[in-house]
User: Fold this.
Amino acid sequence: MSAGPVYTPYHPRWYRRRVSVWWWLRRRSYAWFVLRELTSVFVAFFAIILLWQVHAVASGPEAYERFLGRLGTPLLLAIDAVAFLFVLVHAITWFNLTPKAMAVRLGGRRVPDWAILGSNYAAWLVLSAAVAFVLLRG
Amino acid sequence: MPSTIALSVTRYRPERESEPTVQTYEIPFREDWVVLDALNHVKDRLDGSLSYRWSCRMGVCGSCGMKVNGTPKLTCATFLSDCLPGPVRVEPLDFFPIVRDLVVELGDFVRKLERVKPWIIPDGAPPATGEYLQTPEELDAYKQYSMCINCMLCYSACPIYGLEPHFIGPAAIALAQRYNLDSRDRGAAERLDALSGPDGIWQCTFVGECTKVCPKHVDPAGAIQQYKLTAATHWVKSLVLPRSAR
Assistant:
């Protein structure tokens, strides 16, 4: 086959642009999006630690002490703190998207975004308070 | 107020150039001019070879979508006075092949739009009265999505469409929802495969830029997230319920 473009006057060469590797730096919202994608690793990490903790609690006081000992190293504490921050970021961004994902209608009208957002945050607060009550009671 | 402003426009003349270049024109600054007026001034007075699309110049036809200073905009609704001090950078929409200068090729969108069957699929014969009746509430359920003018600003703003060219994309999904939510339509099941298949809604990771750039407040990002909920519910039902009860 011969090299070079083949085209007719009515179908000229289209120019196709490549997406730069750095596309996510072009806009703050793109960078924020990529950050959210990458930091989901920390959410997975946090979930694994939580499962490990539940397992340790179920295995008795000595196992729990061992768990606390292993978690208490400066490196793990630092990673855990960072992971907690990103879990918070993900929780908040998740709540903020709920009004977009849920078009709730009551009495023929769409429930406003703030009401859906507010009820989600309220449920979060109530559940957190209930957990805190159970944990701190004794 | 300056008396002139610089307009830097992307040029691509396939018979002369192998890749796009930039040409700058010095044009009079008028407070009541939008970017499209500036392009028309260039075309009429300075350089008749400049190619771009436009028609209604009032935000209805969706033809004059371009990137202005890096953001996808309708050039008929973007005032020069909002671009001061200049230069005003005008580029063709991202992610579509450039045909010439500011004109891009939109065939990809049209083919995708066909896949989601953007028309009313009725259930049997039309009603005996001859017309479908619809309450204001039923109209309200889809009206927002029917405002789409196919201007392609949302595709140009969506990095997922740039990275995954098979993605059906924001406007086509919003238009599918426009029919799914219409009380006269019974075609939701026929659209499900295209919408929740590998090229559909699950490609979207909710960057949200499509909604931000939409000049008609269609909120395609919202349409996609809502359809994710619908598709997920459908999937759970298909697991736990017999076919007749879904």
The first strand of chain B starts at residue 4 and ends at 11. Chain B has nine helices and seven strands. Chain B has two domains: 4-104, 107-245.
